[in-house]
Amino acid sequence: MSPIYHHNDEERAAWDLAESLLQQARAMMREAEAALDMWRTGKEMNRLRCERRGISTTDAEIRWSASANAKNALTNNSFHVGLATMYYNAATANYARALYLHNRDDARL
Predict the structure, then answer these.
(1) Can you count the helices (H) and strands (E) in the chain?
(2) In the chain, is it the N or the C terminus that has fewer CB atoms within a 10 Å radius of its CB?
(3) Which residue from 43, 51, 33 is spatially nearest to 69, judged by alpha carbons?
(4) Using CA atoms, how far apart are residues 74 and 105, in angstroms rounded to an integer?
(5) Can you spell out the DSSP letters for 32-49?
(6) CA distance 32 to 21
(7) Which percentage of the chain shows pLDDT scores above 70?
(8) Cβ-count burial 81-103 (b if 16+ within 10 Å, e if not)
(9) Rg from Cα positions in the chain
(10) What percent of the chain has pLDDT over 90?
(11) How many CA atoms, within 13 angstroms, populate the side-chain half-sphere of residue 66?
């Protein structure tokens, strides 16, 4: 995704940093997705366990939402989504900086 050429080291550094930040953001989103999957799996397992015991679906959901495992999974999801957002925003700023530097140097030529 890099421009065909960079005019200077400052532009290349901004672009490379943006690429690195983008990779970090993607890694954080994978972590967030894993936490959400853990929450869904736990919820389903809890529903089945409660069903075997004759506990209603509504009560099963209440019990699951109050459990430490459910709270931890949602907390991890929120935390990693927040980090991903931060990294995506930082990457965007660095891509904009690289583009600015590239266009500035194009204008000088």
Answers:
(1) 3, 0
(2) C
(3) 43
(4) 46
(5) HHHHHHHHHHHHHHHHHH
(6) 16
(7) 94
(8) bebbeebbebbeebbebbeebbe
(9) 22
(10) 83
(11) 6
How many residues does this entry show for the chain? 109
Q: CA torsion angle for 93, 97, 102, 103 (degrees, to 10)?
A: 90
Q: Which residue has the tokens 């936490």?
A: 35
Q: Which two tokens stand for residue 93?
A: 């700023």
Element at 5 (helix H, strand E)? none
Task: Kindly state the tokens that stand for 30.
Answer: 């994978």
Give how far Cα 35 sits from Cα of 85, 95, 105, Å.
16, 29, 44
pLDDT of residue 59: 95
